[in-house]
User: Fold this.
Amino acid sequence: MATLRGLRCRFHTNAGVFSPGGIDRGTELLIETMKLPAEGEVLDWGCGYGPIGIVAAAIAPGCRVTLGEVNERAVELTRENVRLNNVGNVYVARGDLFTWLPDLTFDVILTNPPIRAGNRVLFRLIEDCAQSLRPGGSFWLVGRRKQGIATLARKMGRCLADVQTVAAKAGYRVLRATDPKSIWP
Assistant:
């Protein structure tokens, strides 16, 4: 059980997924900080067992929330957690969403990225998200200061505009970028 944005949420977790012992501080900070439109398309990229996307779906019932994840076990847990928390405005997708559905675009993209995957993976994730963000949309990313959030902020600044730190707590930073630059074909 976790209370997030004033909601009592239940999450089943398991070994082999990120933060199996409960909601990590970075995810919690992103959930508490994120701003969502009344309606639109939202993506929780690298959703793990689903807390960010599930809370997004609960607080923004007019939005359609896609939860994307490459880990098969995490996808199974996400589907179970969607049922446990009774949210219906979601779509759970397994795989590299930007590869097999490259034309999808979103009003909001949220991520607590897999920092340990390395900069090559993280930079590609930022580029893919920038290409998939609708004009006027927002891209939210959380990370730890000591794990390279400044490097990710610089990369975001090369792909997006108006990169800001919108929250900081216990070594974590939530970055928000908006308005994709017109550098993409």
In short: The first strand starts at residue 2 and ends at 4. The mean pLDDT is 89. Residues 2-180 form a domain with the Rossmann fold fold (CATH 3.40.50.150).
